[in-house]
């Protein structure tokens, strides 16, 4: 049983069903003809559980998938004051009360330390959508003298998917650096107060962890990227309950409008007969296009009240969750090819072809076992090559006998060594001549004086 208040009850049958019963009031005849019981099929119910268990059940799978190259999204949806921000970021009062985002950052860097066979680069971004305006929460603090980032646009490219042009990406190398950026972004968020929540989020926020990994052991040109979106949606509001007015009323209208379009997009995605999905109606739905119906592992957390007074909003949230459950995504590993690495490998292949050509020439010219061509040289063989090189340079020999790749390498090494000796001798001779000339010049000066 989830929660009981007067006039209604909520029951959960783990892991898939939520049953709601609204007790009828015999004094209110107008409402007695309306349904009083509802049942919703979901993937699970979390009630009276720790933040640690919430992360384990909701967020951990998406985080581990992101480290393997799969895009992931964890999104909180529900009415204002239902606990979405607490679920995502947690409370600063206690370390145990930290939410999904801090725990996800901890998990990412713990896994990076464990996976020694890969090199990882991690970047963070923090986007706010306020009154249909894109705001970079990590660009500059509100109220500072720095101008805000302009020209931010939601864009889409083949092979890259949806991204925000102009949104800053910040490299991080530890959990501490990542948490500092998270707290900086939280300080820049817009919040307000109303009857249901004294710290109500007045905007939608998308905290994204960008991950790139490359193999340390394989010399191929492939690398893997992924995005982990952690989304705190602003809560839907019934103006009669929140009492919003002025700027708060304007914000509530934008919030409700964008959430309404989000529901329309979900309805279209859940209906397989629909060919068109209206993603571009708002910046929120366009920014979440991949997360809602594309290349992504997506988890929706539906935050609800248990009070009878909020039953209409609770039903609306659960309907949204059951529709979202019918949406199918198609996650795949985001594998890419590095052009610079391809050029490097092509150069190595060309060098190996040339070496193989020399090998075949040596084997065909003399009766040499193939295994001997690459065997290391003995001290006696090195001494013999040194003698041959000296005779060749002195003019007493016209050729040097080479029957293996190792001998060829040693011949060039000896040439390089002899060149260095000649250079040193020339420098020494030049210095002696220069000293004599300087001494003579000094002697002439003394005589002239």
From TrEMBL:
Chain positions recorded as ATP binding sites: 78-85
A GO MF label: microtubule motor activity
Coiled-coil annotated residue ranges, if any: none
Keyword presence, Transferase: no
GO annotation (BP), single: microtubule-based movement
Keywords: ATP-binding, Coiled coil, Cytoplasm, Cytoskeleton, Microtubule, Motor protein, Nucleotide-binding, Phosphoprotein
Primary location recorded for the protein, binned into one broad class: cytoplasm
Record localization: Cytoplasm, Cytoskeleton
Annotated Pfam families: Kinesin (PF00225)
Kinesin motor domain boundaries: 1-327
Database matches in InterPro entries: Kinesin-like_fam, Kinesin_motor_CS, Kinesin_motor_dom, Kinesin_motor_dom_sf, P-loop_NTPase
A GO CC term assigned to this protein in UniProt: microtubule
Family membership noted in the UniProt record: Belongs to the TRAFAC class myosin-kinesin ATPase superfamily. Kinesin family.
Record's protein name: Kinesin-like protein
UniProt organism field: Myripristis murdjan
């Amino acid at each position: 049983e989830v929660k009981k208040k007067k006039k209604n009850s909520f029951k959960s049958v783990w892991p898939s069903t939520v049953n709601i019963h609204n007790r009828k009031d015999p004094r209110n005849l107008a409402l007695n003809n309306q349904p009083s019981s509802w049942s919703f099929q979901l993937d699970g119910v979390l009630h009276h559980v720790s933040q640690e268990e919430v992360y384990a059940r909701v967020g951990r799978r998406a985080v581990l998938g992101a480290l393997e190259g799969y895009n992931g999204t964890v999104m909180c949806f529900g009415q204002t004051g239902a606990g979405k921000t607490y679920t995502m970021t947690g409370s600063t009062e206690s370390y145990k009360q930290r939410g999904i985002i801090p725990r996800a950052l901890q998990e990412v860097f713990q896994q990076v330390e464990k996976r020694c066979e890969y090199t990882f680069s991690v970047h963070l971004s923090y986007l706010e959508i306020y009154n249909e305006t894109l705001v970079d929460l990590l660009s500059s603090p509100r109220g500072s003298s720095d101008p805000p980032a302009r020209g931010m646009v939601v864009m889409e490219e083949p092979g890259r998917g949806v991204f925000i042009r102009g949104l800053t990406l910040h490299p991080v190398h530890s959990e501490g650096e990542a948490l500092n950026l998270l707290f900086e972004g939280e300080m820049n968020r817009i919040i307000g107060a109303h009857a249901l929540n004294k710290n109500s989020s007045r905007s939608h926020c998308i905290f994204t962890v960008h991950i790139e990994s490359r193999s340390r052991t394989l010399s191929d040109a492939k690398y893997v990227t992924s995005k982990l979106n952690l989304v705190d949606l602003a809560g839907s509001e019934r103006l009669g309950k929140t009492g919003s007015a002025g700027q708060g009323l304007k914000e509530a209208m934008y919030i409700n409008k964008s959430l309404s379009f989000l529901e329309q997009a979900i309805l279209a995605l859940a209906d397989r007969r629909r060919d068109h999905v209206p993603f571009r109606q708002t910046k929120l739905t366009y920014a979440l296009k991949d997360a809602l119906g594309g290349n992504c592992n997506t988890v929706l957390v539906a935050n609800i009240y248990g009070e009878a007074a909020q039953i209409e909003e609770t039903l609306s949230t659960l309907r949204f969750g059951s529709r979202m459950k019918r949406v199918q995504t198609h996650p795949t590993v985001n594998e890419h090819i590095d052009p610079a690495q391809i050029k490097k490998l092509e150069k190595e292949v060309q060098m190996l072809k040339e070496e193989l050509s020399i090998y075949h020439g040596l084997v065909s010219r003399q009766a040499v076992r193939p295994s001997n061509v690459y065997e290391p040289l003995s001290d006696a063989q090195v001494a013999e090559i040194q003698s041959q090189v000296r005779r060749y340079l002195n003019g007493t020999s016209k050729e040097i006998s080479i029957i293996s790749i190792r001998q060829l390498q040693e011949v060039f090494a000896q040439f390089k060594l002899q060149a260095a000796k000649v250079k040193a001798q020339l420098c020494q001779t030049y210095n002696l001549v220069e000293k004599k000339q300087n001494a003579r010049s000094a002697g002439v000066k003394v005589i002239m004086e």
